[in-house]
Amino acid sequence: MNTSHPGNVGAVARAIKVMGFGELVLVQPRFADVLTQDETLAFASGATEVLERARVVGRLEDALDGVQFVVGTAMTPRDFGPPCHAPRALFEELAARPEPPSLGLVFGSERYGMANEDVYRCHAVVSIPTAPDYGSLNLAQAVQILAYEWRQALGGFAVQGRTKAPDLADAQAVQGLLTHWQQALEAVGFLDPAAPRKLMPRLNQLFNRAGLQSEEIHILRGIARAMQAAPKDR
């Protein structure tokens, strides 16, 4: 409501898009053309379709058309206002309902937050837990946090871009490496074959814990070859 900085509008569009939401309503923004200003578009960083679909209205009640549960944002509770919650607990409770309601998040002006009369229109208020000595959040940052929490309550998204499973070496390759290292350690005088103690079993466990990949087997065998080829007397 009463947004004063075009960059914040663009950043908010970006914040909600990455969480899979697309409805943005501005109530009496400072600039009538805020949705098309260069700074807004720059901060949107590709979320221009959110700006294209966004609405500008003159009253909060017009922005809440179709919203079943209205959540305001405030650092401190208001007298006689709706109950104040931490976002995660409230969103999890809403999402757990047989039919989760359509949710509307209301953010106040960057300069003075939400007016009391607007807070009273909300079903609940959330306050983002912050460090006790510094709780100042930029508008877009607050939107990003709450959009993330609501998305997580709804089930979240699968992590994208998972790396390919490593090509782990099989047990035979590990044992071949172990034999090669035993020969190399004997060649450099580190291992006495007459009194090996527990060195090789310990190396065996080390290699198993490491979960060596095939390429790493090749590297370690190359080191063993270099040890075997090293001059015996220096």
From TrEMBL:
GO biological process, one term: tRNA nucleoside ribose methylation
Subcellular location: Cytoplasm
Domain of life: Bacteria
InterPro entries in alphabetical order: Alpha/beta_knot_MTases, RNA_MeTrfase_TrmJ/LasT, SpoU_MeTrfase, tRNA_m1G_MTases_N
EC identifiers of the protein: 2.1.1.200
GO cellular component, one term: cytosol
Occurrences of domain tRNA/rRNA methyltransferase SpoU type (ranges): 2-148
Molecular function terms from GO: RNA binding; tRNA (cytidine(32)/uridine(32)-2'-O)-methyltransferase activity
Catalysed reaction, written as an equation: uridine(32) in tRNA + S-adenosyl-L-methionine = 2'-O-methyluridine(32) in tRNA + S-adenosyl-L-homocysteine + H(+); cytidine(32) in tRNA + S-adenosyl-L-methionine = 2'-O-methylcytidine(32) in tRNA + S-adenosyl-L-homocysteine + H(+)
Keyword set includes tRNA processing: yes
Keywords assigned: Cytoplasm, Methyltransferase, S-adenosyl-L-methionine, Transferase, tRNA processing
Top enzyme class: transferase
NCBIfam families membership: rRNA_methyl_1
Role, per record: Catalyzes the formation of 2'O-methylated cytidine (Cm32) or 2'O-methylated uridine (Um32) at position 32 in tRNA.
UniProt record similarity statement: Belongs to the class IV-like SAM-binding methyltransferase superfamily. RNA methyltransferase TrmH family.
Subunit structure: Homodimer.
Name of the featured protein: tRNA (cytidine/uridine-2'-O-)-methyltransferase TrmJ
Lineage start: Bacteria, Pseudomonadati, Pseudomonadota, Betaproteobacteria, Burkholderiales
Protein encoded by which gene: trmJ
